[in-house]
Structure formats: C-alpha cells, structure tokens
Amino acid sequence: MPFEPTHLYITRPEQVKTPGTAILDNAERSRADAFKFPQDRELYIAAHLFMRRTLSKHAPIAPADWQFRTNAYGKPFIATPGYEHLQFNLSHTQGMIACAVSYAGTIGVDVEKHKPLTGLDALCRYALSPLEAHDVLSIRDPTRKEQRFFTYWTLKEAYIKARGMGLSIPLQEFTFTQDTKLEWRLHTETPESNPQEKWQFDTHIIGQHHLSVGIEKINARFISSLTFLYNSGSDNPIKIY
C-alpha cells in the first residue's frame, strides 16, 4: 500500500448536523441512551456522527455502513471488510470534537477544555510522572501552570488511547519531555525499546481547548504530512507540519 498522510479533523459539536441516531449502530444508540444528562447524550451522538462521516471521506463506505469491534480494553477498531487497516481515534469534550484517521499506524487523539483546577498538586501526583509534575509545579503563573498540566494530560491520554490499553498503563510509568527543537519525546519504564523512535506527538492550544495527537511511526519514519482540518462549515485544510 502506498504511504498515505495522517489526518486530524476537528469541529464544534453544534456544527454537526444530527438527524437523530439512525446511522448509528445498536451499541452506539444504547450508549447514547445511557447518558443521564441530555447535553452529554447530544455530544456523544454528534461525535459519533462526525466520526462516521469523517471515515467516509477516506473510503467509499456510507456513514451508516461502518462496522466496529472493540479490544479487551474497549478500544474500537474498524471491522468493515476490506478497511480493517484504516486506523482512527475519536475524542470529544464540551465545545470540540476531534477525529484522527491514519493509514500509517496506530493513532490516538485527546482534546480537553481548559477549566480552572483545584488541588493541582494532587492532580499532578496522580496523573503525571515525577519529572512532568516538577515541570508543571515549577511554573509560577497560574494560567501557564494549568496550560502545562493540560498539555501533559492530553499527551498521556493520546498515548494510552493509541496503545488501546486504557489506564492499565500506569500514568506515572511514562514521561514526556521536549527536546531542543521543542518536539515531544516519550520515555517509558517498560521493555519497549527506544519508544521515542517509534512515536511522534504533537500538541495544540485552540482557544480554550488543548489537543494532543500521538502516532506510531512505521519503520521509525516521521509522519511529515499530517493535515489539520477545521470544520467551520467547510473542510479547509491547514498544514501544521
């Protein structure tokens, strides 16, 4: 298969046309019905409609016809015959939906809305490695300190989502640092050899939202053609690499 670029699409939930749940499958509809609050249900539906329509940009499959399965940890994979190689990941939060699609390798994406944090010291001890926590807590400006925390948090979420193992990967057992070129490097305490040579990461602050994406590189080759698409009524690509 020829090398294809990896794409990252984002949109605001209110821009997703949601004509009910007809194109969702039974599992998605059951999950949507389980939400207690209407706004959470509406966000979930919008995100999964957006995901299906996004995947249909990459294959001649109608949004309603995509089939999925999950691994033992609940990560979804494409089960549509002939398209099992297509990798994707979905994240959504108040005000933003992100869907990453890749032909190049395993991918994970996480988006979080910035909000004031209480008990940041405890959050750092729970969610970050000692080196990451020290980096966050050494920042004196409260806003920049919170921004740094969200950057690390979304990076870690993107990585564990890409791995498809959830929180069975202890958050304190891997660390992100930035090199002299401000590129993110992954360090692990597991037997995984040279993880920084296998993975590529990027982060963005988009208004009130923090977004990170992690991509497993094929043959240790950097993915230099990630396309960033912001849906504001039309899909206009903006190159970020």
TrEMBL record:
A GO cellular component annotation here is:
cytosol
The identity of this protein, by name, is 4'-phosphopantetheinyl transferase
Please name the InterPro entries in this protein's record. Answer: 4-PPantetheinyl_Trfase_dom, 4-PPantetheinyl_Trfase_dom_sf, AASDHPPT_N, P-Pant_transferase_sf
What residues does the 4'-phosphopantetheinyl transferase domain cover?
107-201
One Pfam family in the UniProt entry: AASDHPPT_N
Superkingdom field: Bacteria
What Gene3D superfamilies does the record tag this protein with?
A: 4'-phosphopantetheinyl transferase domain
**Per the record's keyword annotation, is NADP included, yes or no?**
no
